[in-house]
Amino acid sequence: MVGTGLCRDPAxxxxxxxxxxPSCRSVSIRRTISSPGHDLSDIYSPERRSKLMSRxxxxxxxxxxxxxxxxxxxxxxxxxxxxxxxGRPDIVxxxxxxxxxxxxxxxxxxxxAKGRRPKSNQTFWDAKLDRNVERDREAYAQLAASGxxxxxxxxxxxxxxxxxxxxxxxMLGGAR
Length: 176
Ligand SMILES: [Zn+2]
Fold this sequence. Notes:
The chain is of the alpha+beta class. It has helices at 27-34, 40-43, 46-60, 63-73, 122-145, 161-172; strands at 79-80, 91-93, 98-103, 149-154. The termini are far apart.
């Protein structure tokens, strides 16, 4: 698990519920690896490199990357993480005036089994997760007000490739 310790909310002293991970990613590591002109074999020892690469593989299985790959396979053109749009949507498809959020079921309050809230530390979790859901709603409303179609793909919808593909198709229509 990447960065568990680092992502803890200072106000929270309990343990993470089973099956959840903090919503942070090793962005700096990915950036380092993907920046052109960097040859990892030159700057890291084999041990260090293999450790880094295993973290990259772990990152590559995130729901967001599963969705990106599916869109790519389906030949949709998209951009990533638009800093300028409300809520920083994960994927932006300008031609379809559509943005897609890829949400973790736990952190964004999906109504599936994974979205169930922990029984302990209820006050803490309710406050934290309610805030996330509220922020999401505000972002959707602002995006819709500026003419964007807003789609949400839940983490649990990324496990079945065929189902994911039809979800994306119906979200985006036939045209590429
Ligand atoms: Zn879910």
